[in-house]
Amino acid sequence: MAALHVAREAIADAGWNAQELREAALVVGTSRGNAAGWLGPWPGRRPFKLMAASNTIHSEPASAITIEFGITGPNHVLASGCAAGLDAVGIAMMLVQTGSAPRALAVAVDLPLVPILLDNYAASGLLAAGMDLDPYHPNTSGFIPAEGAAAMAIEGREGRFPRLLHYGCNADACDPVGIPADGGRTPELLEKAIRMHGQPVAICPHATGTAVQAIADPAALQRAFPSGKPTIHLLKPFIGHTIGASGLLESVILARFLKAGKLPPNLAARSMPAGFKLPSQTLETNGSIYKLSHGMGGHNALLVLTTP
After folding, report:
1. What are the residue ranges of helices labelled H in the chain?
2. Is the pTM of this model over 0.85?
3. Which CATH superfamily is domain 163-306 in?
Protein backbone atom coordinates (compact mmCIF):
# COMPACT_ATOMS: atom_id res chain seq x y z
CA MET A 1 0.00 0.00 0.00
CA ALA A 2 1.07 3.59 -0.55
CA ALA A 3 1.37 4.36 3.18
CA LEU A 4 3.78 1.47 3.71
CA HIS A 5 5.86 2.52 0.71
CA VAL A 6 6.41 6.11 1.87
CA ALA A 7 6.93 5.01 5.49
CA ARG A 8 9.68 2.65 4.36
CA GLU A 9 11.38 5.43 2.38
CA ALA A 10 11.29 7.89 5.30
CA ILE A 11 12.62 5.30 7.75
CA ALA A 12 15.46 4.38 5.40
CA ASP A 13 16.33 8.03 4.88
CA ALA A 14 16.41 8.60 8.65
CA GLY A 15 18.51 5.47 9.19
CA TRP A 16 16.44 4.26 12.14
CA ASN A 17 17.32 0.78 13.41
CA ALA A 18 14.92 -1.77 14.92
CA GLN A 19 15.28 -0.45 18.48
CA GLU A 20 14.78 3.14 17.39
CA LEU A 21 11.67 2.11 15.48
CA ARG A 22 10.32 0.25 18.49
CA GLU A 23 10.48 3.44 20.56
CA ALA A 24 9.04 5.69 17.85
CA ALA A 25 5.60 7.28 17.69
CA LEU A 26 3.41 7.10 14.59
CA VAL A 27 0.81 9.64 13.48
CA VAL A 28 -1.20 9.00 10.30
CA GLY A 29 -3.31 11.65 8.58
CA THR A 30 -6.06 10.69 6.12
CA SER A 31 -9.46 12.10 5.24
CA ARG A 32 -11.19 8.74 4.86
CA GLY A 33 -8.81 5.89 5.73
CA ASN A 34 -9.31 2.96 3.39
CA ALA A 35 -12.76 3.99 2.17
CA ALA A 36 -11.68 3.95 -1.47
CA GLY A 37 -10.65 0.31 -1.10
CA TRP A 38 -14.16 -0.89 -0.40
CA LEU A 39 -16.12 1.69 -2.38
CA GLY A 40 -14.59 0.53 -5.63
CA PRO A 41 -11.85 -1.61 -7.20
CA TRP A 42 -8.45 -0.63 -5.83
CA PRO A 43 -5.34 -2.31 -7.23
CA GLY A 44 -3.03 -3.50 -4.50
CA ARG A 45 -5.68 -3.91 -1.82
CA ARG A 46 -5.28 -7.17 0.04
CA PRO A 47 -8.34 -9.17 -1.10
CA PHE A 48 -8.33 -12.13 1.28
CA LYS A 49 -11.19 -12.48 3.75
CA LEU A 50 -9.03 -12.07 6.85
CA MET A 51 -8.60 -8.38 5.96
CA ALA A 52 -12.23 -7.72 5.00
CA ALA A 53 -13.07 -5.92 8.26
CA SER A 54 -9.80 -4.05 8.79
CA ASN A 55 -9.78 -2.79 5.20
CA THR A 56 -12.86 -0.70 5.98
CA ILE A 57 -11.61 1.26 9.00
CA HIS A 58 -9.54 4.42 9.31
CA SER A 59 -6.97 2.86 11.63
CA GLU A 60 -5.87 0.14 9.18
CA PRO A 61 -2.98 2.15 7.63
CA ALA A 62 -1.52 2.83 11.09
CA SER A 63 -1.97 -0.80 12.07
CA ALA A 64 -0.23 -1.98 8.91
CA ILE A 65 2.71 0.40 9.43
CA THR A 66 3.22 -0.51 13.09
CA ILE A 67 3.15 -4.24 12.31
CA GLU A 68 5.43 -3.94 9.28
CA PHE A 69 8.11 -1.91 11.08
CA GLY A 70 7.72 -2.97 14.71
CA ILE A 71 6.65 0.47 15.95
CA THR A 72 5.29 0.08 19.49
CA GLY A 73 5.21 3.70 20.71
CA PRO A 74 2.19 6.01 20.70
CA ASN A 75 0.17 5.89 17.48
CA HIS A 76 -2.74 7.98 16.30
CA VAL A 77 -4.89 8.41 13.20
CA LEU A 78 -6.19 11.89 12.36
CA ALA A 79 -9.11 12.42 10.00
CA SER A 80 -9.36 16.23 9.93
CA GLY A 81 -10.21 16.34 6.24
CA CYS A 82 -7.83 18.22 3.96
CA ALA A 83 -5.76 19.33 6.97
CA ALA A 84 -5.10 15.77 8.20
CA GLY A 85 -1.61 15.49 6.72
CA LEU A 86 -0.43 18.79 8.19
CA ASP A 87 -2.00 17.91 11.55
CA ALA A 88 -0.12 14.59 11.48
CA VAL A 89 3.20 16.43 11.23
CA GLY A 90 2.22 18.85 13.99
CA ILE A 91 1.08 16.19 16.46
CA ALA A 92 4.13 14.03 15.68
CA MET A 93 6.38 17.03 16.29
CA MET A 94 4.70 17.76 19.63
CA LEU A 95 5.06 14.13 20.75
CA VAL A 96 8.81 14.49 20.28
CA GLN A 97 8.99 17.96 21.82
CA THR A 98 7.12 16.87 24.96
CA GLY A 99 9.25 13.76 25.43
CA SER A 100 6.37 11.38 24.77
CA ALA A 101 8.58 9.66 22.19
CA PRO A 102 12.23 10.12 21.17
CA ARG A 103 11.27 10.20 17.51
CA ALA A 104 8.09 10.10 15.42
CA LEU A 105 6.98 9.10 11.96
CA ALA A 106 4.25 11.20 10.33
CA VAL A 107 2.46 9.55 7.40
CA ALA A 108 -0.41 10.82 5.24
CA VAL A 109 -2.31 8.99 2.53
CA ASP A 110 -5.45 9.63 0.49
CA LEU A 111 -6.59 7.71 -2.58
CA PRO A 112 -9.89 9.36 -3.59
CA LEU A 113 -10.00 8.61 -7.32
CA VAL A 114 -12.99 6.28 -7.26
CA PRO A 115 -16.26 7.19 -8.99
CA ILE A 116 -18.50 7.55 -5.96
CA LEU A 117 -16.13 9.92 -4.17
CA LEU A 118 -15.54 11.99 -7.29
CA ASP A 119 -19.29 12.16 -7.86
CA ASN A 120 -19.73 13.53 -4.33
CA TYR A 121 -17.14 16.25 -4.91
CA ALA A 122 -18.72 17.12 -8.25
CA ALA A 123 -22.21 17.29 -6.72
CA SER A 124 -20.87 19.75 -4.13
CA GLY A 125 -19.50 21.98 -6.89
CA LEU A 126 -15.90 21.58 -5.73
CA LEU A 127 -14.20 20.14 -8.82
CA ALA A 128 -12.34 22.24 -11.40
CA ALA A 129 -13.71 22.54 -14.92
CA GLY A 130 -10.24 22.18 -16.45
CA MET A 131 -6.73 20.94 -15.72
CA ASP A 132 -4.88 24.29 -15.66
CA LEU A 133 -5.22 25.25 -12.01
CA ASP A 134 -4.97 28.97 -11.19
CA PRO A 135 -6.16 29.11 -7.56
CA TYR A 136 -6.55 32.90 -7.26
CA HIS A 137 -8.03 33.65 -10.66
CA PRO A 138 -11.45 35.38 -10.43
CA ASN A 139 -12.99 32.57 -12.49
CA THR A 140 -11.40 29.64 -10.69
CA SER A 141 -13.93 26.83 -10.50
CA GLY A 142 -12.63 24.19 -8.11
CA PHE A 143 -9.80 21.80 -7.33
CA ILE A 144 -8.13 19.05 -9.34
CA PRO A 145 -8.32 15.81 -7.30
CA ALA A 146 -5.24 13.63 -7.02
CA GLU A 147 -3.97 10.66 -5.05
CA GLY A 148 -0.89 10.82 -2.89
CA ALA A 149 1.07 9.64 0.11
CA ALA A 150 4.01 11.10 2.01
CA ALA A 151 5.98 10.48 5.18
CA MET A 152 8.32 12.50 7.37
CA ALA A 153 10.73 11.20 10.04
CA ILE A 154 10.98 13.61 12.98
CA GLU A 155 13.56 13.66 15.78
CA GLY A 156 15.77 16.06 17.71
CA ARG A 157 18.99 15.07 15.96
CA GLU A 158 21.67 17.67 15.26
CA GLY A 159 22.68 18.12 11.65
CA ARG A 160 21.91 19.82 8.37
CA PHE A 161 18.21 19.05 8.33
CA PRO A 162 15.21 21.34 7.82
CA ARG A 163 13.66 22.16 11.17
CA LEU A 164 10.06 22.21 12.35
CA LEU A 165 9.56 25.30 14.51
CA HIS A 166 5.87 25.53 15.21
CA TYR A 167 2.42 23.99 14.75
CA GLY A 168 -0.95 25.54 15.49
CA CYS A 169 -4.60 24.95 14.64
CA ASN A 170 -7.99 26.47 15.32
CA ALA A 171 -11.55 26.35 13.98
CA ASP A 172 -13.89 28.78 12.24
CA ALA A 173 -17.10 26.86 13.11
CA CYS A 174 -18.63 28.46 10.05
CA ASP A 175 -19.55 26.20 7.14
CA PRO A 176 -19.58 22.45 6.36
CA VAL A 177 -17.52 22.79 3.17
CA GLY A 178 -15.95 26.25 3.12
CA ILE A 179 -14.08 28.88 5.12
CA PRO A 180 -15.18 32.44 5.91
CA ALA A 181 -14.74 34.91 3.07
CA ASP A 182 -12.73 37.23 5.33
CA GLY A 183 -10.25 34.45 6.17
CA GLY A 184 -11.86 33.57 9.51
CA ARG A 185 -9.39 32.75 12.28
CA THR A 186 -6.50 31.85 9.96
CA PRO A 187 -4.84 35.27 10.52
CA GLU A 188 -4.73 34.52 14.25
CA LEU A 189 -2.65 31.42 13.54
CA LEU A 190 -0.29 33.43 11.35
CA GLU A 191 -0.01 36.35 13.79
CA LYS A 192 0.82 34.04 16.72
CA ALA A 193 3.54 32.33 14.69
CA ILE A 194 4.96 35.72 13.71
CA ARG A 195 5.11 36.79 17.37
CA MET A 196 6.90 33.57 18.30
CA HIS A 197 9.20 33.04 15.31
CA GLY A 198 9.30 36.25 13.32
CA GLN A 199 8.20 37.07 9.79
CA PRO A 200 8.42 34.24 7.26
CA VAL A 201 10.27 34.71 4.01
CA ALA A 202 7.60 32.68 2.21
CA ILE A 203 4.17 31.16 2.62
CA CYS A 204 2.57 28.10 1.00
CA PRO A 205 -1.22 28.47 1.30
CA HIS A 206 -3.78 25.68 0.96
CA ALA A 207 -4.90 27.28 -2.34
CA THR A 208 -7.17 24.53 -3.67
CA GLY A 209 -8.79 26.55 -6.43
CA THR A 210 -12.35 26.56 -5.08
CA ALA A 211 -14.25 29.81 -5.45
CA VAL A 212 -14.52 30.38 -1.70
CA GLN A 213 -10.81 29.77 -1.11
CA ALA A 214 -9.90 32.16 -3.91
CA ILE A 215 -11.54 34.88 -1.82
CA ALA A 216 -10.70 33.70 1.69
CA ASP A 217 -6.98 33.04 1.21
CA PRO A 218 -6.09 36.55 -0.03
CA ALA A 219 -8.27 38.10 2.68
CA ALA A 220 -6.48 36.13 5.41
CA LEU A 221 -3.05 36.94 3.97
CA GLN A 222 -3.81 40.65 3.68
CA ARG A 223 -4.96 40.76 7.31
CA ALA A 224 -1.92 38.87 8.61
CA PHE A 225 0.66 40.65 6.41
CA PRO A 226 -0.39 44.29 5.99
CA SER A 227 3.26 45.04 5.14
CA GLY A 228 6.46 43.06 4.63
CA LYS A 229 4.63 40.49 2.53
CA PRO A 230 6.32 37.08 2.05
CA THR A 231 6.52 35.45 -1.36
CA ILE A 232 3.75 32.94 -2.13
CA HIS A 233 4.49 29.42 -3.36
CA LEU A 234 1.58 27.36 -4.76
CA LEU A 235 2.12 23.61 -5.08
CA LYS A 236 -1.31 22.30 -6.09
CA PRO A 237 -0.99 23.59 -9.68
CA PHE A 238 1.85 21.04 -9.98
CA ILE A 239 0.49 18.07 -8.01
CA GLY A 240 -3.26 18.53 -7.69
CA HIS A 241 -5.16 18.28 -4.42
CA THR A 242 -4.43 15.04 -2.59
CA ILE A 243 -7.07 15.81 0.06
CA GLY A 244 -5.93 14.47 3.47
CA ALA A 245 -2.41 13.79 2.19
CA SER A 246 -1.89 17.30 0.80
CA GLY A 247 -0.53 19.05 3.91
CA LEU A 248 2.19 16.46 4.53
CA LEU A 249 2.99 15.93 0.86
CA GLU A 250 3.48 19.66 0.34
CA SER A 251 5.50 19.93 3.57
CA VAL A 252 7.84 17.17 2.35
CA ILE A 253 8.33 19.06 -0.93
CA LEU A 254 9.03 22.28 0.96
CA ALA A 255 11.43 20.50 3.33
CA ARG A 256 13.39 19.12 0.39
CA PHE A 257 13.79 22.61 -1.08
CA LEU A 258 14.68 24.09 2.32
CA LYS A 259 17.36 21.43 2.83
CA ALA A 260 19.08 22.92 -0.23
CA GLY A 261 18.46 26.48 0.98
CA LYS A 262 15.85 27.12 -1.70
CA LEU A 263 12.18 27.92 -2.23
CA PRO A 264 10.10 26.18 -4.93
CA PRO A 265 8.98 28.07 -8.05
CA ASN A 266 5.40 28.71 -9.11
CA LEU A 267 3.95 27.81 -12.45
CA ALA A 268 4.15 30.86 -14.70
CA ALA A 269 1.18 33.14 -15.33
CA ARG A 270 -0.69 32.40 -12.10
CA SER A 271 -2.94 35.07 -10.59
CA MET A 272 -1.69 36.59 -7.33
CA PRO A 273 -3.27 38.39 -4.38
CA ALA A 274 -2.73 42.16 -4.46
CA GLY A 275 0.69 43.19 -3.17
CA PHE A 276 2.14 39.67 -3.10
CA LYS A 277 4.60 38.01 -5.47
CA LEU A 278 4.49 34.52 -6.98
CA PRO A 279 8.04 33.96 -8.26
CA SER A 280 8.22 31.60 -11.22
CA GLN A 281 11.86 30.71 -10.53
CA THR A 282 13.57 28.86 -7.69
CA LEU A 283 14.78 31.28 -5.01
CA GLU A 284 17.66 31.10 -2.57
CA THR A 285 16.56 31.41 1.05
CA ASN A 286 17.76 31.36 4.62
CA GLY A 287 14.59 31.61 6.63
CA SER A 288 11.23 30.08 7.44
CA ILE A 289 8.21 29.18 5.35
CA TYR A 290 4.66 28.99 6.69
CA LYS A 291 2.51 26.11 5.38
CA LEU A 292 -1.28 26.36 5.72
CA SER A 293 -3.97 23.69 5.37
CA HIS A 294 -7.73 23.91 5.80
CA GLY A 295 -10.23 21.13 6.41
CA MET A 296 -13.91 21.16 5.53
CA GLY A 297 -15.99 22.45 8.42
CA GLY A 298 -13.57 25.23 9.30
CA HIS A 299 -10.43 23.48 10.60
CA ASN A 300 -7.29 25.58 10.03
CA ALA A 301 -3.73 24.33 10.54
CA LEU A 302 -0.31 25.97 10.28
CA LEU A 303 3.19 24.49 10.22
CA VAL A 304 6.40 26.54 10.31
CA LEU A 305 9.47 25.02 8.65
CA THR A 306 12.90 26.59 8.32
CA THR A 307 16.26 26.03 6.68
CA PRO A 308 18.92 23.97 8.52
Report:
1. 2-14, 18-23, 35-39, 60-69, 84-97, 115-123, 186-197, 211-224, 236-239, 246-259
2. yes
3. Thiolase/Chalcone synthase (3.40.47.10)
